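**User:** I keep going back and forth on a fold encoding question. It is easy to fool oneself when nobody else works the same problem. Could you pick a protein and write out its sequence and tokenised fold? Could you put it straight underneath, so I can go through it closely?

**Assistant:**
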Amino acid sequence: MPPHATGPAPNPRRRRWLVWSLALCAAWTLGVLIWAGVALLTPAGDSPQETVERTAGMHHDQHPSAGRYYVPTHAELQKDGTAVLRYKVGNGQDSSVKDFLRTYDVTAKPKRTTPSEVTYSDRFGDVHRTLTVTYNLSSDPGGYDYARITVRARPDDST
């Protein structure tokens, strides 16, 4: 033992174990930091509902000038690629069929299929959309309490 040492000689096996433990802890910490950075900085993907909305050309990002959007009560992507969305729209200043059609750039002429049902057929990009508006008629002449809007959209087969 050297003259300046006061205790027993350090065990080389213990020193090696300590070095490896510290190296593993440092590597694990670095890995967690990298994982957290990637998780926090990577944008989240669309939810299944948003995917259906995008397929149908009804996602709010596709209509930024509207400044608003409607949330579907049902969203489904069928096996044949058809997107089906259902909305319930009121009859007021903030929510109406007219506002819905304006929000989603539907300019097609309506086709009345029954006294309480109107169909619109239009295109948005490479998507053919069919909107069926079913009115729940009210006791007021020419009025309605709310409407259910079903959107069926299918991308063109040529793409």
Notes: Helices lie at 12-41, 48-56, 97-103. Strands lie at 74-77, 83-90, 111-114, 117-124, 127-137, 144-155.
